[in-house]
Amino acid sequence: MSRLVEKKNVAPYVLITSLFFLWGFARSILDVLNKHFQETLSISITRSALIQAITYLGYFLMAIPAGILITRYGYRRGVTIGLLLFSAGCLLFIPGERLMSFNLFLCALFVIGCGLVMLETAANPYASELGDRATAASRLNLSQSFNGLGCILGPVTVGELLSGGNGVAFPYAVMGIFVGILALIFSKISLPEISISDDNNRVSRTGIRTEIGRLLAIKEFRFGLMALFCYEVAEIAINSLFINYATENAGIAKESATYLLSFGALGCFMLARITGSWVMSKIPALKVLLSCAIGALLCAATVAVSGGSTAITALMGCYIFEAIMFPTIFALTITHAGQNVKTASSLLMMTPLGGAIGTLLMGIMADETGLAVSFAVPAAGYLAVGLYAIYALARKKG
What's 265's DSSP letter? Predict the structure, then answer.
């Protein structure tokens, strides 16, 4: 069995994995903001869904520029730029709260989204490549487990601060200062570049459009990209409306719903991701992915047609079964990129736009027909992931 991480790469792997925690924390806070802004600014579920939509629009628009910057200047500078954008967006919450302007909050979240996609575009392929390719999916799942830890701590930490009378600017200001210090640290340290190709020379010679065209011409990469988009539709949409569902459909108090999201749902998510990393060292990743897609689909369908404790249990099941999907699809898809890893990572990091679309669709359906019925949206996303796994398994056997 190959080592999960080569001995010489342990320190860079630990440093990069720390970033997974950061963006997990930042993204999970959005799920608390939805309900908070609905109450403090008296806006509808559909309008509050713009929180996710604008953040992940930043992902979509910045992903390609992020890949170009990382290709030209390397992983360390890419991470530093991402951290600086992240910090600047957090600090914009201070004037946003003074004016109580939802539009200014959205502007801040857009800048944060641009920063986070820089971090993810650099960190995901970097973690994948710090060892044998046979263990790439397992290695990335382990790194993503720390993303799960950030997701657990984000909602409960910010939820406690908000329920304690602090304004929404306070946690973001603290986070902005911390991330700014981290950017300074990363600007001084040395991260080894992975010599997997002459990406820099080739992209400047052929052009980014040609590189993208070559990648999209690869059927396995194209289908993996679509599967990742559909996964994001399901995962982000469910997170966004979890607290709404728990309070309105299961009769759980808002504070209890926040704890349930953090330590219940996201706790299960993290444990399932760690377990999945171990399972995929024993069982082929595609078989695990297919099994999890079927399980998640059944759970989402159960939430849509039931209520009470049955629905909450099924909702927890969604988090357990979806846990390994992102890193597994990402790692499997990036292996088909050949020498175009950095450009491929940029395309794959555009997929959180699916979460923005999924959240808006769920919000519209929730306002029109009820929250339970809106779970047809994530069910469709899980179905698409299952079809991708079936296709990939068939191609592998062929």
Answer: I
How far apart are alpha carbons 106 and 150 in whole angstroms?
22
* Tokens read off for 103: 């539009």
Collapsing DSSP to helix, strand or coil, 61 comes out as helix
Given a cut of 90, whether residue 320 has pLDDT beyond it is: yes
Taking the alpha carbons of 235, 241, 243, 247 in that order, is the dihedral positive or negative? negative
Report in angstroms the alpha-carbon separations of 14 from 8, 24, 280, 288: 12, 16, 21, 26
302, 186 Cβ separation under 8 angstroms: no
Residues 51 and 30: their CA atoms lie apart, in Å, by: 7
Distance CA 289, CA 345 (A): 20
Q: How long is the chain?
A: 398
pLDDT-derived band of residue 196, with 50, 70 and 90 as boundaries?
A: very low
* CA pair distance 217, 316, nearest whole angstrom: 38
Contact (CB, 8 A) for 300 and 385: no
> What's the CA gap between 342 and 304, in Å, rounded?
39
On whether the CB atoms of residues 340 and 220 are closer than 8 A, the answer is no
Share of the chain above pLDDT 90, in %: 39
Q: What is the pLDDT, as a whole number, of residue 205?
A: 45
Instruction: Give me the amino acid identity at 253.
Output: A
